[in-house]
Amino acid sequence: MLDTPALNASLNATSALLLVGGVTAIRAGxxxxxxxxxxxxxxxxxVFLVSYVLYHLQVGSVRFLGTGWIRPAxxxxxxxxxxxxxxxxxxxxxxxxxxxRGRFDGHRRMARRTLPVWLYVCASGxxxxxxxxxxxxxxxx
Length: 141
Description:
Elements: H1 4-27, H2 31-59, H3 70-100, H4 104-134
């Protein structure tokens, strides 16, 4: 049976690695590699979104069972992750659109705002997965 939450966390990690690879490539002047990495990061993120939505349409929401100090910490992380995930989608689309249109000054300005948000969403999504499905708090009663 497919472990969809683990797949989704892996897709988040892959997207983050592609983003870092893309930034490294552009700083080294390797524009074609930069474009490949960034388009790859966008494609992987779309696959993640489809997988995430399909999983939660089948399963519904998954309760976090942790108690004590971890509970407000988890929900603070989840809320910031969720809000920024909604915000970063149009930011990433706009950043990509500007690059594809050859509007590189605008692309650079937008990318400087988009990249840290996108990386945070990827990283926080992995932490949310770990807390919800793999940590000691996921087995709390």
